Design the sequence.
């Protein structure tokens, strides 16, 4: 009996083991196990772990709709929009009537400005779910994105009527009313939303943001403090209060709130990162880097800490350390858009702009709406000489990320280079809106106003910059510029001197002091001011550069200027301005070969600026009529920067003059024209190529454009452009115009190098 019992027990245990192993191998059991584990992680707000488990479930059963939808929810929480979109689309493929998936994918499409595709989902939802307030709310958002404010408002009001106790429709309606110029009504709806959802960060942030936009800072502060008291573990509220204080220049209060957030939320990433992010926002990269180094030590598994730390290491030019950490991220996910952007930045720092462009384009391919990627791609293209493409990328960056202040700064600098004051003012306004506590937005806008002779506006902005940055020399220098352009020389000199007293190393301030003397024909005093400041700061390459420029331009002192430029380069071998001017001095005394040797040495010592030096070398070889070497230098410059506009312009012109392939010259001239759209020389070069190809009317248009650009830039009248224009008009039979421009050549410069040809042609026309 005992043996039978034992045998039966063995059989039972064997059967249990068999059943257990069978269950373990059953795909349905396994996928459910992963799915349940993912749900548990999701409930604990461990979204990365949840995503992994949901992925495991979908790999076992690719048609498991619930797992795809849950994976999309995890991606939404992680702000991985591309992954969320893909999983929602897969969910809809499997379950076409999954209306929540349709709604969420529509919202993603609206956010990505893919409005036509969003309409397909919204139209379906309006038909199938006409009483769902969320559907009408999404429809309002879509119509608002299309600019149909009336239709959007109607849909938002329908959503309010369907769900008067839900806060989202009031938020949507308020935002539409703000756009429609109804701030008071919008404020009432934002207050209603905040009352309905007092613990929702979204409602509290929206109301505080509304107060802040109306400069009701006390009300915004009170609202945020009440919200923080109700939700002390919500990082977004603390971050908003830090930003509010920072925008008002209350640095001590902002830092205190950030430190309290780190103390109160030691286990919440968004909380303990606020202090480091604050240091980053105010440009204190040393403290930001130290803070993130400590955070990375304490939270090595926090991927956002790691990424932010990488960005700071790049900004501190610690590219090897940054690359090592970044490679760890890319090893886990080769298509991580942020890590690809960091790699692009690292490659730029390593002077590998072509590789950086490829990497950043790959990042955008993976995440087309990544504004930061577009910004850095613009920077890489600019380094390559693709100016127009760079500006297009910067515009796309700020379209996708209106809060990307560096994008607006890049566009502001582009506007300055083009002397486009309207665009400069627009970018300056954006910078001011985003960083009202920083001085540069006000100074840029002041520059635009000065250029337009709108002096009261300019002075107001300069004084505002002084108030937000009382220790900065920038506003003082700009106030000097403000007075200088109005010929208030004594007042300008006082402001420049005040800036120089505050910062004895300020090259801009010394340049201002010297400019005041030069404009009053007091050259000796200007040079004495340079020498006096050099005595105080003997290690300033910039000061010796200014001294050399003054000695060469004003005193015709070749020996003194040569010595000053050489000293400037001794202190800073990478001072490209000093090297370029030293070359001019050497050429003026017959030392062209020595200048060439200097530039060749600079190419070896400074690979980052090699393209610039190759152009200088090309110009020197042209003066020696060594056209073969000149072409070679320009070609090398283009090899360094694929679309180098200046090198392309010079090479195209030289190819025409030496009878080379006109089609190749045309391509180069077109590249130059795209890169230097406001350059009289680029317009003239392209016109000259068209002239040689027999396209005389196109040539005339470009020569006329060259003259207009020169007049706009207030540069001297160029006899060569008039010569070209005279030749072109002669070819079209417009002899009076041809005569007019040819006579202008001789009036500008009677000793013009082609003067005999001009006289001969005039006699033929006459």
Sequence:
């Amino acid at each position: 009996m005992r043996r039978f019992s034992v045998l039966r027990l063995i059989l039972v245990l064997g059967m249990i083991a068999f059943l257990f192993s069978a269950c373990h191998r059953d795909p349905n059991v396994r996928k459910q196990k992963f799915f349940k584990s993912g749900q548990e992680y999701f409930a604990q707000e461990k979204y990365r772990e949840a995503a992994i488990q949901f992925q495991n479930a979908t790999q076992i059963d690719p048609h498991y709709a619930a797992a795809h939808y849950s994976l999309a929810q995890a991606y939404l929480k992680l702000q991985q929009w591309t992954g969320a979109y893909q999983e929602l689309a897969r969910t809809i493929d499997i379950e076409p009537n999954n209306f929540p998936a349709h709604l969420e994918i529509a919202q993603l499409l609206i956010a990505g400005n893919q409005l036509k595709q969003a309409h397909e989902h919204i139209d379906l939802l309006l038909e199938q779910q006409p009483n769902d307030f969320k559907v009408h709310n999404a429809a309002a958002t879509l119509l608002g994105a299309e600019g149909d404010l009336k239709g959007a408002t109607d849909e938002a009001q329908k959503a309010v009527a369907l769900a008067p106790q839900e806060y989202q429709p009031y938020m949507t309606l308020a935002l539409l009313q703000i756009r429609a110029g109804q701030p008071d009504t919008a404020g009432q709806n934002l207050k209603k939303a905040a009352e309905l959802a007092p613990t929702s960060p979204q409602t509290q942030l929206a109301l505080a943001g509304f107060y802040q936009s109306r400069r009701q800072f006390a009300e915004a502060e009170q609202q945020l403090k009440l919200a923080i008291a109700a939700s002390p573990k919500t990082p977004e509220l603390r971050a908003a209060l830090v930003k509010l204080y920072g925008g008002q220049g209350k640095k001590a209060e902002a830092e205190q709130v950030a430190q309290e957030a780190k103390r109160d939320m030691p286990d919440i990433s968004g909380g303990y990162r606020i202090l480091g992010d604050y240091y980053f926002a105010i440009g204190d990269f040393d403290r930001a880097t130290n803070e993130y180094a400590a955070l990375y030590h304490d939270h090595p598994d926090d991927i956002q800490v790691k990424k932010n730390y990488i960005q700071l290491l790049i900004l501190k030019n610690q590219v090897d350390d940054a690359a090592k950490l970044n490679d760890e991220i890319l090893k886990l996910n080769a298509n991580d858009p942020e890590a690809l952007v960091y790699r692009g930045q690292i490659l730029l720092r390593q002077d590998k702009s072509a590789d950086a462009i490829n990497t950043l384009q790959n990042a955008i391919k993976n995440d087309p709406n990544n504004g930061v990627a577009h910004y850095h791609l613009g920077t890489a293209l600019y380094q390559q000489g693709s100016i127009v493409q760079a500006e297009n990328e910067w515009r796309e960056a700020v379209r996708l990320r209106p809060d990307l202040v560096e994008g607006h700064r890049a566009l502001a600098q582009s506007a300055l280079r083009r002397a486009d004051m309207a665009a400069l003012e627009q970018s300056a306004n954006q910078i001011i809106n985003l960083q009202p506590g920083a001085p540069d937005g006000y100074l840029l806008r002041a520059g635009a106003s000065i250029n337009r002779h709108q002096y009261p506006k300019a002075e107001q902005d300069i004084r505002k910059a002084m108030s937000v940055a009382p220790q900065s020399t920038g506003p003082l220098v700009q106030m000097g510029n403000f007075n200088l352009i109005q010929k208030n020389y004594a007042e300008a000199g006082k402001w420049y001197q005040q800036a120089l007293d505050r910062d004895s190393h300020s090259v801009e301030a010394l340049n201002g002091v010297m400019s005041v003397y030069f404009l009053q024909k007091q050259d000796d005093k200007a040079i004495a001011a340079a020498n006096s400041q050099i005595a105080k700061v003997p290690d300033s390459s910039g000061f010796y550069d200014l001294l050399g420029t003054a000695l060469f331009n004003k005193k015709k002192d070749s020996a003194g200027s040569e010595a000053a430029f050489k000293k400037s380069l001794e202190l800073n071998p990478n001072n490209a301005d000093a090297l370029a001017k030293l070359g001019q001095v050497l050429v003026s005394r017959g030392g062209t070969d020595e200048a060439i040797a200097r530039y060749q040495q600079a190419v070896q010592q400074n690979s980052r600026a090699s393209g610039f030096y190759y152009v200088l070398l090309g110009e020197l070889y042209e003066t020696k009529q060594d056209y073969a070497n000149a072409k070679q230098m320009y070609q090398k410059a283009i090899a360094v920067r694929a679309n180098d506009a200046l090198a392309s312009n010079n090479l195209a012109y030289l190819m025409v003059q030496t009878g080379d392939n006109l089609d190749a010259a045309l391509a180069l001239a077109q590249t130059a024209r795209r890169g230097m759209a406001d350059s009289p020389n680029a317009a003239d070069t392209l016109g000259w190529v068209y002239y040689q190809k027999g396209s005389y009317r196109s040539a005339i248009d470009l020569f006329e454009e060259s003259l207009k650009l020169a007049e706009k830039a207030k540069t001297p009248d160029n006899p060569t452009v008039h010569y070209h224009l005279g030749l072109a008009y002669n070819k079209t039979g417009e002899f009076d115009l041809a005569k007019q421009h040819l006579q202008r050549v001789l009036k500008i410069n009677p000793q013009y190098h082609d003067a005999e040809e001009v006289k001969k042609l005039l006699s033929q026309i006459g």
